[in-house]
């Protein structure tokens, strides 16, 4: 329907520079957790309790060892029994609070992701057709699904682990030092090496994670295009082409994922060596102290447990750091969408438009696609005043600017020169929702949604009563074929209405427009793709729909618009003729040429059919 737009200065455009990734994006992401702060605080408290309890049992293990080995030959097992009972109690409480913090923080994460998905989708619906003309649907859905899914790990599991491991690290280090200061210095000397490795390698992980997300989005975009146009693909036997295109995208994501896995494996290997190498040295040095009598076996075991906790905590924090690096790439792509602004600004104080009269005036209107409107000029100095209730037919050769002209009325695009007025006011003075509520559109390629017939008709006015839906279907000559289905109005139409014929889809679309009851109606080639029987039914429905409305009709079949109040002939983005059918025929201009050419083509076709 639209001419192909030029690129704007969108931050999502492949031609624009990449937005700088900033760790503050994660702070912005966590701002979505504000509605769940009560659950988060309770979950955090449970985390603190669970982590604190986990710090107690190494000391009890040490007491258990000393109670066993230092009292060899003694029959008094009371201390050993009390220690075991205390250990079991601590394990039970730790498990209880651990389960509570896991559920509560996972609940917060799931809520954040749901809110984020809603926010991104709602924001996408506010963007203009220019934006969607410049970006592939598959890429946008990838950001909405896989990127948000990546973020979910951070806002749920990773968030809980970050809190738990932070508490464990601080507590384990304090208890480590209190158990044996000398051994502590030896153990803690490894931590700067671990942190340094995490920072250096983490930067590479973040960069490659972004490449993975981009590659997956590209593959999704190719798949979405091929699936949505599968009939064209199959008719041209282009399955191999699309298979190769999608395969290239998958291969690119696979290679990027391998690079990420290599960096993650490098980090894991270095962390493992540093952690367990340090423990081996500690065990060697601690064993020498036990042999010298300066450290009990129980204290050594306690120290080893705390050292293991420190090592395990640092390793876990490293993994969490990796997850945050991946989330930085994903959140960057998400916030690029949320930061995208429509090129159709809303007025600060919109003019009221409860029920439009329907007068439309183009005053020296020019329009061109592209960021500045100067590239690909489609309309040039169009002046046209259409009184309320008039039926105007727009005719002209392909590319004359007819569809572009009518798409300016609901502000799918903004004029780049001149002024477009509805009821005497510039359309930019109205709120978009108020303006579009007054405009009904019946295009050539009708898009139905994959629900029922009733749901598709209700799209015109969601709160309509069942009898109003039926009345709209009757007006659109759709009631009979709808009730012939076994499920009637509850018949599922399939994706894009694939289970209905072209004429049926068009009549459902007309019923949708009837239910909306717009003051301005746009019919863009509404009958051009139909057979004669369907066209007659649709045309009758359209004539009822046009009554009392300002109507713009675009049609290549000139016989269908002879009875229009006025015919506007366009060529090269300009209005070249304007008047009723008889006057334009008498003038002998472009309209008569088009009419006679089409008439002769029809006569030739009839003659060929009549020939033996």
What ranges have pLDDT less than 50 throughout 5 or more consecutive residues? 1-11, 13-20, 602-610
Instruction: Tell me about the largest β-sheet.
Output: 6 strands, mixed
CATH architecture classification name of the largest domain: Up-down Bundle
Please give the radius of gyration in angstroms: 35 Å
| Name of the level-1 CATH class of the largest domain | Mainly Alpha
- Enumerate how many helices there are, as a single number: 20
Determine the fraction of residues in helical runs and give it as a percent range.
Answer: 55-70%
Q: Record the strand order, biggest sheet.
A: 6-7-8-3-9-10
Q: What fraction of the residues are assigned to beta strands by DSSP?
A: 5-15%
CATH topology of the largest domain: ABC transporter transmembrane region fold
Spell out the CATH superfamily of the largest domain. ABC transporter type 1, transmembrane domain
Q: Choose one word for the global shape.
A: elongated
What is the structural class? alpha/beta
């Amino acid at each position: 329907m639209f001419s192909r737009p030029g690129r704007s200065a969108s931050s999502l455009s492949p031609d624009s520079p990449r937005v700088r990734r900033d760790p503050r994006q994660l702070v912005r992401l966590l701002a979505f957790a504000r509605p769940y702060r009560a659950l988060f605080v309770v979950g955090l408290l449970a985390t603190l309790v669970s982590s604190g309890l986990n710090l107690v049992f190494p000391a009890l293990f040490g007491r258990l060892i000393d109670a066993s080995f230092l009292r060899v030959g003694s029959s008094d097992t009371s201390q050993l029994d009390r220690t075991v009972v205390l250990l079991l109690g601590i394990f039970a409480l730790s498990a209880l609070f651990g389960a509570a913090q896991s559920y509560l923080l996972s609940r917060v994460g799931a809520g954040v992701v749901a809110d984020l998905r809603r926010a991104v989708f709602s924001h996408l619906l506010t963007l203009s057709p220019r934006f969607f003309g410049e970006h592939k649907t598959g890429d946008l859905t990838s950001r909405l699904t896989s990127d948000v899914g990546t973020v979910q790990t951070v806002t749920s599991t990773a968030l809980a682990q970050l809190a738990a491991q932070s508490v464990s690290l601080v507590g384990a280090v304090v208890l480590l030092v209190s158990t044996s200061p000398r051994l502590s210095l030896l153990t803690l000397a490894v931590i700067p090496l671990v942190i340094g490795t995490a920072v250096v390698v983490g930067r590479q992980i973040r960069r490659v994670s972004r490449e993975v997300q981009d590659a997956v989005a590209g593959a999704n975009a190719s798949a979405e295009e091929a699936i949505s146009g599968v009939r064209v693909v199959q008719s041209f036997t282009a399955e191999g082409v699309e298979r190769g295109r999608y395969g290239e995208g998958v291969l690119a994501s696979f290679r990027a994922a391998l690079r990420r896995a290599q960096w993650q494996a490098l980090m894991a290997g270095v962390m493992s060596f540093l952690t367990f190498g340090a423990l081996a040295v500690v065990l060697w040095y601690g064993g020498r102290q036990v042999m010298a009598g300066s450290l009990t076996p129980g204290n050594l075991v306690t120290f080893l447990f705390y050292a293991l906790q420190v090592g395990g905590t640092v390793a876990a924090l490293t993994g969490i750091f990796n997850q945050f690096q991946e989330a930085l790439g994903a959140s960057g792509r998400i916030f690029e969408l949320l930061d995208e602004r429509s090129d159709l600004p809303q007025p600060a104080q919109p003019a009221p438009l409860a029920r439009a009269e329907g007068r439309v005036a183009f005053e020296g209107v020019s329009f061109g696609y592209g960021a500045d409107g100067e590239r690909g000029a489609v309309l040039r100095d169009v002046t046209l005043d259409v009184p309320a209730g008039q039926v105007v037919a727009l005719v002209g050769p392909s590319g004359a600017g007819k569809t572009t002209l009518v798409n300016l009325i609901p502000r799918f695009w903004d004029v780049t020169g001149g002024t477009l007025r509805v009821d005497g006011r510039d359309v930019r003075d109205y709120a978009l929702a108020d303006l579009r509520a007054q405009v009904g559109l019946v295009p050539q390629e009708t898009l139905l949604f994959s629900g029922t017939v009733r749901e598709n008709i209700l799209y015109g006015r969601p709160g309509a009563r069942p009898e109003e839906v039926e009345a709209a279907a009757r007006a659109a000559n759709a009631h009979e074929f709808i009730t012939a289905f076994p499920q009637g109005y509850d018949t599922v139409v399939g994706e894009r209405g694939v289970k209905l014929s072209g004429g049926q889809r068009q009549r459902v679309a007309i019923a949708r427009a009837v239910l909306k009851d717009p003051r301005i109606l746009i019919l863009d080639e509404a009958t051009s793709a139909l057979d004669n029987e369907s066209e007659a039914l649709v045309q009758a429905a359209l004539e009822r729909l046009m009554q009392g409305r300002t109507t713009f009709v675009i049609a290549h079949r000139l016989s269908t618009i002879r009875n229009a109040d006025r015919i506007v002939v366009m060529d090269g983005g300009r209005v070249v003729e304007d008047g009723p059918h008889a006057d334009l025929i008498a003038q002998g201009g472009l309209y008569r040429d088009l009419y006679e050419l089409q008439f002769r083509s029809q006569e030739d076709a009839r003659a060929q059919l009549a020939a033996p």
